[in-house]
From TrEMBL:
Protein name: 4-hydroxy-3-methylbut-2-en-1-yl diphosphate synthase (flavodoxin)
Lineage per the UniProt record: Bacteria, Pseudomonadati, Pseudomonadota, Gammaproteobacteria, Chromatiales
Cofactor or coenzyme needed: [4Fe-4S] cluster
Organism, scientific name: Nitrosococcus oceani (strain ATCC 19707 / BCRC 17464 / JCM 30415 / NCIMB 11848 / C-107)
Job description of the protein: Converts 2C-methyl-D-erythritol 2,4-cyclodiphosphate (ME-2,4cPP) into 1-hydroxy-2-methyl-2-(E)-butenyl 4-diphosphate.
GO BP terms: isopentenyl diphosphate biosynthetic process, methylerythritol 4-phosphate pathway; terpenoid biosynthetic process
GO molecular function, a single term: 4-hydroxy-3-methylbut-2-en-1-yl diphosphate synthase activity (ferredoxin)
Record-linked PANTHER family: 4-HYDROXY-3-METHYLBUT-2-EN-1-YL DIPHOSPHATE SYNTHASE (PTHR30454), 4-HYDROXY-3-METHYLBUT-2-EN-1-YL DIPHOSPHATE SYNTHASE (FERREDOXIN), CHLOROPLASTIC (PTHR30454:SF0)
Gene3D superfamilies in the cross-refs: Dihydropteroate synthase-like, Sulfite Reductase Hemoprotein, domain 1
Top-rank EC class of the record's enzyme: oxidoreductase
Domain IspG C-terminal: 282-370
Length: 380
């Protein structure tokens, strides 16, 4: 079945082009430490073998940049790089990659030293000089606080949209058109609304779709499918990433899940319903990346899932995150949040930190807090 597609502009990423009626490209991200060149090249190769069109890697330090140079020499893959606050690394990174992703929510730091507009301008100049595409990657867990404060407290959609549209306008004004946008959240209903509203305003800009921190299969695939079916079958979306918490040697499963969802949509095998809502225990967990601080994170996420099965009928969200970069912010909206450090796991209830516990002690401590929430909800 020929799917309708929004008339997005073409954006080339290395050897592929997204938008302009090209096939929806499938992406993933390495979960290895970027500095471990051998493991990262192997994971890139595994992802390409599974059918990845673009592979993203995280670069946070000069050591990561040195590793990236070696990685580039060993692979022809279309590489995207994820830069966080350290946007200046773009200068040394860009010659070795095909796309740069930046998060508007990370550019407001040290605003007084350099306004975010200047940082974007710098990134675009570097991208232009090095034949790189750009992704404006807006994420529900890390929205610029200045943007969030312009809207009512319960409205998490408008600040994200406003942030994306503002950056698009700046890029357009600066004459840089080789870019796409992503608007990700761990809630598939929000992902649907965000992308539908963005596409209504800017149908010309290619969209990279994803449900972030979707968790472990099969639930993570189901959440992602819900969002992708509603969007792609309406012509919205030019490239996708399925974000799953998986053992390091199974990252290719993300690509296979993405390709299966696309094949099902193309064949009209659309199963999900639009009125998805949280009615039962919801475990969100990050897909892990180079920033994971303790590899026990993957096992911990699975142990949390097994331990909390007894609470399956309660509408409680538990977030399990792999590092301090995104962990503290992206656990704020969960009822209970865990973010993993090198030796300890930080436990939160909402935005309040309850304490830091060893990997051995965290599960019983989490259970205590979950039991408190259940008893509070049972009483009311
Ligand atoms: Fe990577 Fe940290 Fe995000 Fe997990 S939470 S995907 S480890 S940046």
């Amino acid at each position: 079945m020929e799917l309708p597609r929004n008339p997005t502009r073409p954006v080339r990423i290395g050897t592929i082009t997204i938008g302009d009626n090209n096939p929806v490209a499938v992406q993933s991200m390495c979960a290895t430490h970027t500095r471990d060149v051998g493991a990262t090249v192997k994971q890139i190769n595994d992802l390409i073998k599974a059918g990845a069109d673009v592979v993203r890697i995280a670069v946070d330090t000069k050591r990561d940049v040195e590793a990236l140079i070696e990685i580039r020499q060993q692979t022809q893959a279309n590489l995207s790089v994820d830069l966080q606050e350290n946007y200046r690394l773009a200068k040394t990174v860009a010659p070795h990659v095909d796309k740069i992703r930046y998060n508007p929510g990370h550019l407001y730091h040290h605003e007084r030293q350099k306004p975010w507009q200047d940082k974007v301008k710098f990134l675009l100049e570097v991208a232009g000089e090095n034949d790189c595409a750009v992704r404006i990657g807006v994420n529900g867990g890390s929205v610029d606080p200045a943007k969030a404060s312009q809207f009512s407290e319960g409205d998490s959609i408008s600040p994200m949209l406003a942030s994306a549209l503002e950056h698009c306008e700046l890029l357009d004004t600066l004459g840089f058109i080789r870019y796409c946008v992503s608007l990700k959240d761990s809630d598939p209903t929000k992902v649907i609304e965000l992308n539908q509203r963005f596409a209504a305003e800017r149908p010309d800009i290619p969209l990279h779709l994803g449900v972030t921190e979707a968790g472990m299969p099969p639930e993570g695939v189901i959440k992602t499918r819900i969002a992708f079916e509603q969007l792609i079958s309406r012509g919205i979306g030019d490239t996708i990433r399925v974000s799953l918490t998986l053992p390091f040697d199974r990252k290719g499963d993300e690509i296979e899940a993405g390709r299966q969802i696309l094949a099902d949509i193309a064949a009209g095998r659309v199963r999900s319903v639009v009125d998805y809502g949280l009615k039962s225990l919801n475990i969100i967990s990050c897909p892990s990346c180079s920033r994971v601080e303790n590899e026990a994170f993957i096992d911990l996420a699975q142990e949390v899932k097994a331990m909390t099965e007894y609470a399956a009928d309660y509408a409680v969200t538990i977030a399990v995150m792999g590092c301090r970069v995104n962990g503290p912010g992206e656990t704020d909206d969960a009822d209970l949040g865990l973010w993993c450090g090198p030796k300890a796991v930080n436990l939160k209830r909402g935005s309040k930190t309850l304490g830091s516990y060893s990997y051995h002690d965290i599960l019983p401590r989490l259970k205590e807090e979950l039991d408190i929430i259940i008893s509070e909800r049972t009483e009311t």
